[in-house]
Specification:
Length: 364
């Protein structure tokens, strides 16, 4: 298996693709050359749009029809989907893992078949069998969220104290830790000097986590926080790691009597530039910020990597030393996340044709 990978990098495209297909040299192998399996976590939020985009790019490049699966946010489902892709003879696996640390055994099987494994958006941990990582700078996502809170409330100049509560994502998703670290590192000095107060005392990843990125759990936690700690409505900001939670958090705030049109409405952050959140940001009616990760670029970077690999070239890597997955530093290609708020949503999202104004108007 290792031999065929080396041949891919050194040899001619045709030979390499054939050897990598993991098939005996019978008639079907050539048809499978470049066959990609895409395993995404679920259909909520960004993933479905991205799956369709990736599928289209792969087809447009003339590669075989990829196999695209969504894992229903369930680890075992994702593992059996990957097993079935391996049985079908995939040459490449592009995986956004539901549980970053549970794919070791299935990826070992994939490696035995000579499959090249690309961790998509989320690092795959605790296995030597991941070849590349393609994502955004996830630590920076958390930095941008915290910076938005600091700037909106002018925490550097005002005396405060400001009351903030923190949320983090699914601890089994490696990204959740990176987002949280980026945010906490950025807020830390204000927490130490008492300008930022987290009245719940819940400041760890473990106490702020929403398991499985389950929306309802973010609602429950926000309700509990408000009931227990903010009967006086003196909450200034909620650090929400993703739009998925942000709008639900805004709804809970409104239900508890916070006025979304007023200056005292808590600053709620987000990530992913979901269209409904962008509408809120535009209209000033709730969520105030999101982090735009141009998933078109991520899909295109994935496509370039697949093309390079099928044509026997080393793919472009821009980070070799940051993503230690417990076994090795995974060669990564990282894109930059972009801060989006009331001041620049149009420039970043409409002028770049990510959304039309009509799409934002029509968002529910
Ligand atoms: C992704 C985010 C997404 C979250 C929930 C993270 O791994 O990077 O973009 O909002 O998962 O699906």
């Amino acid at each position: 298996m290792q031999l065929s990978r080396r041949r891919l990098l050194a040899g001619s495209a045709g030979t390499a693709a054939l050897s990598l297909a993991g098939c005996s040299a019978d008639g079907d192998s050539a048809d499978l050359a470049g066959f990609v399996g895409i395993a995404l976590p679920g259909i909520t939020g960004r993933w479905e749009i991205e799956g369709n985009h990736l599928e289209r790019l792969i087809k447009d490049a003339g590669m075989p029809e990829p196999k695209l699966e969504y894992g229903e946010e369930d680890v075992d489902t994702q593992i059996s989907q990957i097993e079935s892709m391996i049985r079908d003879g995939v040459e490449f696996l592009v995986i956004a893992a539901i549980d970053s640390s549970s794919l070791g055994p299935v990826l070992a099987d994939a490696k035995d078949q000579g499959v090249t494994i690309i961790a998509y958006d989320r690092l795959i941990r605790d296995t030597p069998d991941v070849d590349y990582y393609l994502s955004f700078d996830n630590y920076q996502v958390g930095v941008l969220q915290a910076e938005h809170i600091i700037e909106s409330l002018d925490i550097s100049n005002e005396t405060g104290p400001f009351h903030v509560e923190l949320f983090s994502g699914d601890p089994e998703d490696n990204n959740a830790e990176l987002f949280f670290l980026g945010s906490v590192d950025t807020l830390e000095r204000f927490i130490y000097d008492g300008k930022v107060r987290i009245r719940s005392g819940q400041t760890e990843q473990s106490t702020t986590a929403i398991d499985g990125w389950v929306l309802e759990n973010s609602v429950d936690r926000m309700e509990d926080l408000l009931d227990e700690f903010y009967p006086e409505h003196d909450l200034d900001a909620v650090l929400s790691p993703a739009d998925l939670f942000s709008r639900a958090i805004v709804e809970v705030l409104v239900d508890h009597g916070f006025d979304p049109g007023s200056d005292s409405f808590p600053v709620v952050t987000g990530q992913d530039a979901n269209v409904e959140s962008v509408k809120d940001i535009r209209d000033g009616t709730g969520q105030a910020q999101t982090v735009f990760k141009d998933t078109r670029e991520l899909a295109e970077a994935t496509m370039r990597m697949l093309t390079d690999l099928t044509e026997g070239r080393e793919p472009e890597i821009n980070d070799r030393g940051s993503y230690d997955n417990g076994f090795k530093f995974v060669p990564a290609y990282l894109l930059e996340p972009v801060q989006v708020d009331g001041s620049n949503w149009e420039q970043v999202l409409v002028e770049s044709d990510y959304f039309t104004m009509e799409e934002i108007d029509e968002a529910a």
